[in-house]
Amino acid sequence: MRKIRVSTGVALALLFGILLLIAVVPLLPTYDPYGQNLSASLLPPGGVSFDGRMYLLGTDTLGRDMVSRLALAGQVSLFIGFSAVIVSLVIGVALGLLAGFFRGWVENVIMGIADLQLSIPRVLLLIAVAAILGSGVFKLAILLGLTSWVAYGRVARAMALSLREREFVLSATTQGATATWNIRKHLLPNVLPQMLIVGSYELGQIIVLESALSYLGLGVQPPLPSWGLMVSEGQTYLELDPWLSVLPSIALFMLVAGVQIYSQTFTSENDMSAEVVKAS
User: Fold this and answer.
1) pTM score > 0.85 for this model?
2) Gap between the Cα atoms of 115 and 109, Å rounded
3) CB 222 within 8 A of CB 61
4) What does DSSP assign to residue 184?
5) In angstroms, rounded to a whole number, what is the distance separating the alpha carbons of residues 65 and 35?
6) Using CB atoms within 10 A of its CB, is residue 279 exposed (0-12), middle (13-18) or buried (19+)?
7) Nearest 5°: phi and psi at 52?
């Protein structure tokens, strides 16, 4: 129990740092992610420009404030991450419930598509589709959502297979309830809590995938910042100005690690609660 509390504290500390970055920094009067000052380019963290302005985390090659760029990049990553999770959750839950409830050829077709998608390396699939369809924030969110539904679908199907045989579902069916009514009233409310746990794990993976695509030049395009794109742009100056790549890497680590650790501890606490209830 103490280990879980420590892990929860670490996760909340990491997420609180990211929250300050993306929610508080944009409210500061010095917030300007696009403003260029070539006379103040490549200032180190804490550096002061000729006009007397101090840059807390330094500037990039065009003299843009790194704090502002990191904050906007975090907002972009979270927008893409949450949007992709919603898209994949809706598709995965719908297909998983249909496959588990109706069985037969419906299950074979849906699970066959899922197995086919799993047989293709996810990163290679994303690179190929992104190269064909082009990049952009909305396109990237939809693309990541369409390639992330399988995890939700498999869990939803497994739960639907169990729930369809429960007494409350069989009783409703014998009284004339339709399949749509059973899925909406009985299956969906029982499946959604588990889907939220799956979504918390998928959020971190999607943010990492978005950063990887942006790093390769297939994701977010300049001048809009992305943590992966900032790491890629800073590699040229890695020997003399390492903060250009290190700072966005740290921000990405804090967000993904915070989400993953909190998801793991939340799941562990639920499992422990379930065991206590069973034991009592």
Assistant:
1) yes
2) 10
3) no
4) I
5) 8
6) exposed
7) 90, 5
